What does this fold into?
Amino acid sequence: MICLPGVSDETGEEATPGAGLNTVTHCSCSKNGGHLSEIALETVLPGTPDKIYNLMFANGFIKDFMKVHQKFIDVQMSDWAPISQGSNLFQRNMSYIRPLYSNVGPKQTKCEIHDESVHCDFDDHAVMLTTTKVPDVPSGGVFTVMTRTCFMWAGPISTRVIVTTQVEWTGRSFIKALIEKSAIEGQKVYYSDLDKAMRMYIQEYQSESIPEGIDPTTIAPVGPITPVAGHNGGGLEGAISGLALAEDNLDMPGSYNAPSRSMVHTRSVSDETGEEATPGAGLNKLTHCSCSKNDSHLSEVALETVLQGTPDKIYNLMFASGFIKDFMKVHQKFINVQMSDWAPKGSKLLQRNMSYIRPLYSDVGPKQTKCEIHDESVHCDFDDHVVMLTTTKAPDVPSGGAFVVMTRTCFMWASPTSTRVIVTTQVKWTGRSFIKGLIEKFAIEGQKVYYSDLDKAMRMYIQEYQSEFIPEGIDPTAVALLEPITPVAGHNGGGLEGAISGLALAEDNLDMPGSRNASMICLPGVSDETGEEATPGAGLNTVTHCSCSKNGSHLSEIALETVLPGTPDKIYNLMFTSGFIKDFMKVHQKFIDVQTSDWAPISQGSKLLQRNMSYIKPLYSNVGPKQTKCEIHDESVHCDFDDHAVMLTTTKTPDVPSGGVFAVMTRTCFMWASSISTRVIVTTQVEWTGRSFIKGPIEKSTIEWQKVYYSDLDKAIRMYIQEHQSEFIPEGIDPTAVALLEPITPVAEHNGGGLEGVISGEEARKAWERDRNRLGLFVNSVTAWSLNDIRSNFAHDLTGHVIQEGERPFASGSFGDIYRGTLRMKGRTIDVAVKAIRTYSVDDGDDAKKKKVSVVEFLSLSVLVQQVVQKFRRELKTWLNLDHINILPLFGTTTNFGQFPAMVCPWLENGSLTAYLERRYDNLTAVERLTLVSDVAAGLQYLHSRSVVHGDLSGANVLIHANERACISDFGLSTLLTQLGGSTFATTHQAPGTLRWTAPELLDFEEPEDEGDLPHAVPSPRSDVYSFGRIMLQILTGKVPYHYCVREAQVVHAMSRGVNPKRPSQELVTDRQWTFIERCWTPVNVDQSRPGDEEIVEFAKQELEMAAL
It folds into this structure.
């Protein structure tokens, strides 16, 4: 035993296992915030806590699990011994050698483990602390992995187990982020495997865990599992036991119903029937594939497009013509492409085999691999739809014998003369692999790149051979999508907003005069190396595209995609040759010693130019150097201002770790977006000339910084254009008409979209007015939200109009998960944030799971859920009616994100106040900081004027708009949401993070002798004012309250003793400001009251006015 049977920690009192078994218990970690920072496991298992406790720590099962399942070598365990003389808590040491499966570094490492019991009362809960050291790995001597395992009663005969983990550092390391990420992920995988193994063991030895006479199907948690507050990941969707356990085991063989695809066979034959289908029948209706109806699309969208031509034409182009073979050989550089003849598949449907050798461009491993492909038609009715299934094997790659890549291609009528094509894909596993995640990632990304290239090649081919694809007598400009494409449900990525091609593009352009003056980066009117004269102004009625889009030479990540008022030469010079860019670097970015050489020809006689630049860039990391020198080389790649211009920038930072083996490449493309506007695409990637153990962190931080830099530059350019409008917008042109004339098609294979909408005239003016925040062309310094277009186009229920981006949440909070998404609105899209409440209910899940809960429990919980949902809807209705510059607007709700309606709000790129200050604090002026304070004060005053109490105001739910103004979100919901978990408001607000801003009267540190001594723990305007004081302190200092307290337990201790955050220096917070902040923190049981809303707003206004003088 790890501690003596029935003994409660240090007390030695006898605890009879089984006493009080009708109550659900909680661990002390939940009460005092002692959980570690990441959840590795949260589960409910059949069996009492002492049984599960011993299974995980004391019997032979755990040793067998390590040796047999985890393949650990030389597992050594010492005997359990008292922690100290006379103690009833025990400890032990363990060691083993763990295999490593990385392509670089050692193949195994020794792990040293120390287990000790922290609390052991099986009538309440038990806690175990595990410390793991791996001294042989890089930086292994300066970190340990801590794991805390908590066992609690979940029901009379079931146990809830929570395992939390974190990495603790005793020294410095340049690869902290990499170590923490891999360590935490390893813990999650290990405990997930352990959970499954324990369930199998319990299933096999049921009599040991479930008392005689108990129906095993009744073993379920007594109430919903409330996830550990503040942690990523949710709880359990149900307690699984009985036969259901076996079905969830890893690596169990199972049947796989392969999704189906279409075919390239006898024209117009409808699948197995053999009936002749006349192409063209019923063409006035859009058709849909059977995959959409029966949900048999595969898990990832590789392509969704609309092409000119009927389905049989596009079908044969992709599968039966010489075009596809040429595409593979010439464009994709596939070698030895072999295709068999099409043959019957026991019916009118056909199949064929194919093989080729594909080049690989990795720095390690083989340089090429053989691919084996099997195509088969699943459904073929050209009057309705066609489906094709492709199976690809790559046996030569690592784990190649254990997986295949499935691809399903669907062809449907999009209009009388156009075809909608949807390609979905996924990896199917037939065996085990230690690099599953890596393989799936690269396989799916490779499919998306391949089909993006194929889409471009087909469009070029169709344009060249238009007569083959558009029937005689049909006006090619009429070939367009009849309605917006609804993206495949549940898939990432959006659809197409319209099929625009050929002459239709030109007809949509505004016929406005405009001069195209030559840039100074290359000689006037010269197109790259040819030296041919290009007449500025020719072809002004066409939208142009860069050569990078045509030949696939964009870099791997988009740093910026925008449309700016002004011709390409104007924007080009603004970014590369004017004094503006130097001022931007020095004043806005705080670069030091900016040096720029003159432009010179790239080579003798060349019309293209190059230059060098250098500057010293400040670094704001807590470790490492405080600044670094950057060396930049700019060169023009293509320069024809009648078409497009391309600039290539190479940045080197030799002083940073591994700085000598990588460079940051940036490609900036300028194209005509309309007669008087320019589309700019900036793509970037890191290129390596040597090896580094910190490639991942370097690439991540570099790409993120590029995105922040170009986002800042975009805003600065817009402000400059607004101030110098006459230089960029020709005389006589209404500046409100400067808008994008066609939707921006995002750069293929890149994340992120562009701007959507075909707008001109009066509609353009109104749209420009609505979207001036997003486009950055601010009419004045104060920006108000306009919700009329949202509310006029939709009811409050936005279900079906919101497309989720990515399967996992973008961020998580105390109550919910935040997803990024797109709201589609009559041919246009708006980036939105979707906040889904993270709850657990027995009403979730299938019927099999519901049977494990008694009827009384099920009905009572269902009624509770219904009551809370009704109250929740009333709260959301209040939010919908709010309209203020400093209040985050609610567009509506959607019901496909869980038990509760999910809230749909605009997406704010600058994120939360806390994150924004971490990034930008040092660059903010006193006026900008006090503007944020004023914004929060005004938003809070508005809420209280509408009888709305926030209740949970913190740095996480004050958000920063693109114009760097603050708005408040997530108000009035905290009290309501705690009802579902059965917890008190105070318990909810002791979640890690939010505690630092919470008024102490809402925290029940101890029970008052008289219930009337203190107000009930209910949020009020006074508690919001207290939180505002904390927000004000955070904005003025750039640090969260109690920033010097690393652990939440330290914050709890300070607040319970009435200790406020320390007084900052007078340089950051003046005496007047500090006095006002302290007034906001006035205890509720003293005579002096906290400031009112009007006083807060007035004080913020006065401080802002004084700072502006």
User: Anything to note?
Assistant: The chain has five domains: 28-208, 294-469, 547-732, 785-839+875-907, 910-1004+1017-1108. The chain has 30 helices and 32 strands. The longest strand covers residues 108-121.
